[in-house]
Structures are given as C-alpha cells and as structure tokens.
Amino acid sequence: MKNSEIVLVVDDSRSVLEALSVLLKPHFAKVVTLSNPAGLHASLREQAVDVVLLDMNFRAGINNGNEGLFWLNQILTAAPGVSVVMMTAYGDVELAVKAIRQGAIDFIVKPWDNRKMVETLKAAVRLSRSKNQANRSSQTVAEPIPVGRSASFRRVLDMASRVAATDANVLITGENGTGKEVVAREIHRQSARACRPMVSVDMGAIPEALFESELFGHLKGAFTDAHADRVGKMEAASGSTLFLDEIGNLSLPMQAKLLSVLQNRQVVPVGGNTPIPVELRLVCATNGNLWGMVADGTFREDLLYRINTIHIEVPPLRDRREDVALLAQHFLQQYGKKYGRFGVTLSDAAVEKLERYCWPGNIRELQHAIEKAVILSEGTTITEHDFSLSSPAAPVASFSGTLDEMEQRLIAQAIERNAGNMTAVAAELGITRQTLYNKVKKYGL
User: Fold this and answer.
1) Is residue 396 over pLDDT 60?
2) Which SS3 state, helix, strand or coil, does residue 3 take?
3) pLDDT tens digit string along 84-143?
4) Half-sphere exposure of 154 (CA within 13 A, CB side)
5) Cα separation, 7 vs 418, whole angstroms
6) In 102-210, alpha helices (H)
7) Concatenated DSSP letters for 271-314?
C-alpha cells in the first residue's frame, strides 16, 4: 500500500531508469529518476526522499564502484536519515560488503528480480522512517549528564575514547545508576557512526514472546496484532550503534537467537523469508556478573565472548565523590528550570552532606534526591535539612562481635529481606554483585 514514500533512482542508463520507473510506480507514491548523480544534492533538498537506489558506476569502461561509493558518502552526509540501496551489473561480493560497511543498507545485482527489488525498497522505506523517528526522539531528550572529573571516571572515558575509533563490540558493566548508558553514548558520539542516531533497547523490558519482533522486526499479518510491517531495532541500527541494556536479563533461548544474528550479520523479520543484512556496532551493558552466570549455566559463554571484545567497568558514585557536587549542580539546574525554581542554590552544608553519603543507588539516586529537594524546599537555598538520606547499612552500632561477624550478619539479613534476590541485596549494601558473591562464598551463606 502506498503512503507518501519517495524513491529516488540514480543510474546513467535511460533504459534502466524507464524500466524501474514502470516497476516501482504502482508500489510507491513517487518515483524520481536521475541520469546524472550531480543532481543528487538538489533532489534531496527539494523533496523528502526516503530511499535512494544508487548505481555503482557512471562512466563507461569504469567498473570499480568508486563513483558509487563517493556518491553514497555524499548522500549520507547530506541526508543521514535516507536509506541507500546500491545497484551494479557486477556481482562483486567484496564491493557489496564495502558499500554496506560505508552505510548502504543493501545491494542489488543487475539484472534484478522484480519481486526482490520491490521488497528491498519497501524494507528500505521502513528503515528510513524508523531512523528519522529515532532522530526526532533523540532531539527531545534531556541534556546529557556531565561525565565527571574524578580520576576513576576519567579512566573510563579515556578507554571509551580509544575504543570509539574502532568497530569493536563493547561490554559495559557496573551497578545500577552508575551511568553506563552515558558511556555508551560517549563511545557512539566519538565514533565514525555518530552521524546516525544510536538505537537503544532495554532488554529487561522486552517480554520473551516479543523478543524477535522487537529486535528483528515483523511483517504485516505475521501474528495476531501485526497490523503493519515493523522494522526491528537491529535493522534500524544498521550503519550505527546498537545499545543493548541489561543484556544479562536475556533467557537462554533469546541468547541463542541473538548470537545467531550477530554471527550471520543478518536478520529475518517474523513472518518473512528474506534475510536482511545488518552492519552495526554493538555496545551492551549489565549490572550483573556475566562470568558468574556463565559458571552457573545461565549465560552462554560464546555470546559473552561475542559481546565482550572490550570490557569497561563503570565505578560506583561512592568511589567518585569528587563528581557528586558537579552532578548535583547539573541536576539542580535541570529541575530548577523544570519546576520554575530559577536561581535556587545548594548551601555548602548541603553539598558536604551529599558528598558524605554512600549513594547505593548511584547517580540515579542523586538525581531523584535533587528533584525531591527542588520540589519540597522553601526559599532560594536548599539546605542539608532538605535531604533525608539514610544509608541502608546504617544500624551497624547495634551489632557486636568481630568485623567479619558483623559483616556476615549484615549480608545474611539483607539476603533474607530481599528473598534471595542478589541484585537487590548488592544494591542495598552498596557493593557489586561480584563482591557480594565472593562474601557469600567466604561466609558460606
């Protein structure tokens, strides 16, 4: 069904342009043809093109594809949201891979199959629409959190900067609320893929029944509620960065499906039969101990190796106390503006109180504490009395015995309170899950 899709075909052969115009017009709202790529910039400025079908060669006797790669780069620079499908009479697999690595989403060899041509361009339209929607959403998000100036976090950023120049897959670990997504976005911002929006997926929020549809997409009618075709997150991230948060929450069957896609670098939408190539940079994050999960048999070792080319551990806020005041000021400005509390400040005593607190919930807890204080405080200065901060491990004075005995009882009580949920226990005690597992083993709990 046609909506408002615009396809731009660029080829030096008049017969090819005429044939494609006849083939595509019944399936798309508008088909524009160009025999000279020099008119590309004007065409992209004049109309909201969804897809460019671009020939690889334009001068007689030259078949190395360099012209097509040049114009591919020009299109992606001028219109990052446009999907580009390359076309050539020479079935050079190496050239196809090179074009896809540089940002094309697919590759068609002449003479083409009519059905495949239409299906490929329809998928390209869906991908273009999805990318543009993601780009619009990214422009409305709140200001990024300042990264901090502590030595421990600067080391994280230095590693992120070195990794960004490569396409290596990155695994970011750390407690909840430490800023793992901030690090992921910094890697993407400094990468060659920064011209396209990073695509983020919270793996912990995807029901297993919808896993394939969310990541791989689906075709209309594939299942009861599939009322229209949908581009999956992996296809939408092709040519960009895919951020998979809470990767440790995936079940073993979902891990196997994800591993297969990462190995083959192609997805098949639910209800479809045609593989769609994807070329993306993968960044994953978790607050869990994936190595411990591998030992427990709850996480695939081969998937861990696949996503863990580079490992970055984000330190908790209690280990970067120099950053507390900086982050607090950032959130103060953010929520002062949001709630009309312009000019509100933090007293010196309030800042000292914030810096002394252990922040088991890390940056996220600090953010919520500042927001609450902005809402409830009176006057233009927020004082230490406007913050009700109490460490969950505060009642240490009620214990007696050796330090090890106190620690053992503290951990045992936290495990009982949280019904054995080790993630919740670690968060309450303000330690990593790996540290918690080590202490549980030490005390035989």
Assistant:
1) no
2) coil
3) 898 876 555 567 667 776 778 877 888 888 988 998 898 888 877 766 655 554 444 444
4) 5
5) 56
6) 114-138, 151-164, 180-189
7) T--S-EE---EEEEEESS-HHHHHHHTSS-HHHHHHH-SEEEEP
pTM of the full predicted structure?
Answer: 0.59
239-293: per-residue pLDDT in tens?
A: 899 999 999 989 899 999 999 999 988 988 888 888 888 889 999 999 989 999 9
How far apart, in Å, do the first and last CA atoms of the chain sit?
Answer: 62
Determine contact, residues 344/332, Cβ cutoff 8 Å.
Answer: yes
**Are 170 and 191 in contact, with CB atoms under 8 Å apart?**
no
> 100-106 — which CB contacts under 8 Å span 24+ positions?
100/277, 100/279, 101/279, 102/69, 102/72, 102/73, 102/76, 103/72, 103/73, 103/76, 103/239, 104/54, 104/72, 105/238, 105/239, 105/277, 106/276, 106/277
What is the spatial distance between Cα 47 and Cα 11, in angstroms, rounded to a whole number?
Answer: 19
Retrieve residue 424's tokens: 């919740």
Q: What kind and span of H or E run contains 99?
A: helix 93-101
Residue type, 370: I
Residue type present at position 261:
V
Q: How many other C-beta atoms are found inside a 10 Å radius of the C-beta of residue 271?
A: 16
Helix axes 403-417, 433-443, angle to 10 degrees: 110
Contact 52, 10 (CB under 8 A): yes
Secondary structure letter of residue 382 according to DSSP: E
Among the residue ranges 49-53, 276-280, 423-427, the one predicted with the least confidence is 423-427
Return the C-alpha torsion angle 5, 83, 32, 115, nearest 10. Answer: -80
